[in-house]
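Quick log. Single chain, no ligands specified.
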Amino acid sequence: MGRTDPAQGLLLHSVPPSPTRASGEHRRCGGARPGFRIPATVVGGDSASVVACAVFEAFTRKIFMLTIMHLAHSRSDRLIWLFEELGLEFGRDYEVQTFERNPETQRAPTEMKALHPFAKAPMLRDGDRVLIESGAIFEYMMARHGDAGLVPKSSDPDWPDYIQWLHFAEGSAMLPILLDHFQAAGLAGPPGESPLAAMAKSGMEQLFAYIESVLCERTFLAGERFTAADVMMGWVVEMIDFKGELGPYPSMQRYLKAIHARPAHQRAQRRAAQSAAAGTG
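-> predicted structure:
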């Protein structure tokens, strides 16, 4: 007899209960992913049971480990950050697979097309499923693996701002950033001189002013508590800082210091660097 776990689509076989334990009693192996238990008949006090537990842990890590497909200095940085904020353990719950950019185009390599036709980072592999789109991955992860308090309830006064900023990062904020990137690369004419350059400049100024106006009045973008929307939007503010354009915006400077001080952000930076140095997680 067995049952299919709806989250993974795998057949989990039951084991008859031990006569010395109450029916249905289970014990968790130390490294098994949350939500997975093995019957008490498999885990006991003898060495054979310890070995069985170790084998089970190795099996579940291999089957159920999440994999982030990562490009250095890309938006996939914030997915590693989210995983750390959610309390997922690097090397146990998730791994990072780093790909090198094409040296000529600076785009994702062709190897990523074997994973998904769009071949863009971030990608998330969960079992046999590969997801793209940062916002979708965020919602998927927090629905499947818990939100660690990073999502206000829909009845919370902060929730409308939360959901707006969660998607603003890849929506309204991204267009002027991309336009500015294209014009600076000379793809629309001499940098700073094309009609696209003027459009990008106007859009960037509007974006900066809007974020600054919100952060003048609150600690984080959705209110006084840190949320997953700050993980999404943190990358945008980091990009503004990377371009050297954060100087006139004291509230964004304060915000950037606050997110950089978070232990999960610091761990994520180390994970990304380690993965890049090793070539894979």
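Residues 2-63 form one domain.
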